[in-house]
Amino acid sequence: MNELSDDDLQSLLAGLRAPPPDGGFEQRLRQGLLEVEREGAGAVVVRGPWGKRRTVALAVAAALVLAAAAAALWSRSSSVTPVLEAEHPLPQVAPSQTPPQMPAQDRETPAPIDRQQPPAPRRSERLEPRSLPAPAPRAIDPHVEERAAPPPERPRLDRLDITPERTSGGGARSTGARPLPERLPGEQPGSAPRSLPERGREGPGASTTDPKRDPPPRDRRHPSR
Amino acid sequence: MFAVAVGTTLSSSSQRRETCVSAPEEELLNRARRGDSAAFEELIRPHLPSLRRFVYSFARRWHDADDLAQEALIKAFRTFASFEGRSSLSTWLYTVTRNVCHDHYRGKLAKERGRESPLDDVYQDERDSQHTLLGAKSDSEALWAAVKSLDPEFRVAIVLFDIEGLSYEEVARIERVPVGTVRSRLSRGRAKLKLLLADRAATPPPSGTAPVSIPSNVEKPR
Questions:
Q1: Which of A8, A170, B82, B142 has the most CB atoms within 10 Å of its CB?
Q2: CB within 8 A of A8, min separation 6: which ones?
Q3: Which residues of chain A have a CB within 8 Å of the CB of B13?
């Protein structure tokens, strides 16, 4: 294929840099510049495309836009308001009826803050609402072991699936003291009760007595021990 | 000191246009800003041939190009107070002229599109350029016709860089595009121009016309 190289093309294009034919261009340009000078070049304001349009057309367009916007707003408000009123009717207030006003003392002076509030209850105490009335005292028979039935006034315990602890007597639930563990059949009455691993850990001190769980600390100075 | 590039020298095609700063131009600039047409004419006189050639790439005939160039220069005179000297005067003049030419081109296109058969008329200029290219009586006419048949973006880059000798940066500033875009447009425009000239060289010219003379180092078609 016959193709010119870039150098050949550039040399050809550079040959076009010949002076253009003089057809009186400079004279006409001088006349045009003189006319503009007479008009006053500094007074000419360069306007954008919007400024070149007719003022009347601009005013009419602006009026049309404003009218359309107003009509759209009016139609929107008129179509929405009945629906809202039908769904949420406003309360009718008689003109003579005035809303109840609070006494001036209550409005202006806030209630004093009781800074000596009781401390926050513990977690165990929070389970029992304080507002519930205390159960009526019942006659306690010391020979009959009372089964602590879940009181009906404590629905939260039922919901949390907490079985009430079996108490050895008294009927009242002891929150702080641990009940004594039951004795197994082979235990001596004088010996200390063994911990029952199947019953699980019942307190923080239960694991300290188990030598398998917590072996005694070795003396590091005598590693043979 | 206010520096304006007015004088231009161009020794060869490989050397880009060099700008020099002359102190007396400051007085001319101030007078032209105040609306002195003689000072403005004195300032733009060295740039008139290149500006006319640049406009000619957008017009069919030299007469139309002169009208368009006059319109652009009068617009430049009206808005000369906005020239702050951040770029050279030639770059500013080329920018104003290029905008006027593009507006004229777009207005012409819009007029043509408003007619009933736009496809027949929109590309009338390009077809005219092709016919002129094929029937050109001289190399320069054929070359001008080939340049005019390019898209405006390629046309401006080739005219400003290859014909008028501006630098990449100046062309980029006039076209408001990155320098890489200018290089790309130049490359693509030259490729299209080569194809056009090769087609014309391969096509037998009409009677009374001469083909474009191809340099001797170029391989001729067999």
A1: B142
A2: B214, B215, B217, B218
A3: 10-11, 14
